[in-house]
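Quick start: load a record and inspect it. Here is Calcium-binding protein:
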Amino acid sequence: MPHLAYQRAALVFTLFDANDNGVLDAEDFDLMTERVLEVATDSSEADRQALADSISNYWEVMAKTLDVNGDGLVTPTEFRGFVLNPDLFGASAAVFADALAALGDPDGDGLIERPRFLALMTAIGFDVPNIEALFDAFGPDATDRITVAVWAQGIRDYYSPEKVGIAGDRLVPNPV
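Running the structure step on this input writes:
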């Protein structure tokens, strides 16, 4: 397993830990949903609901799979085993990828403009320089747009621990 996959998993944990209490709990996923939907007010209700459902599903799958003592908390160690296992996490990541990418395209033209991408990724908690580097790695067109399909695939790749040298690696601060 590439070391960068562990760094990606650690970063995702910190992003999911929206209330900064050092563990994952249901509140974290509610907070992330609120933050993302705040910047997607012009998206369709169906797309907004799909995103909310995908984030809720993340928590449901994690709680069911990882919270062995039933305390409603998932530790960083428990999470790493989950996020680095495509059999456990892959389906949830794919649904999230499609839902988030759809929020990037409120006008339905299949394209995501840089400002919208930045707003959504900032709401999730990524750092702006890393977001900018990721957008550039996706190969924007002459009008500074990427396709929904490219972003959705980039999200899937990010959650695939066997993938190396992917665009999403740019989200990891100072990758080793």
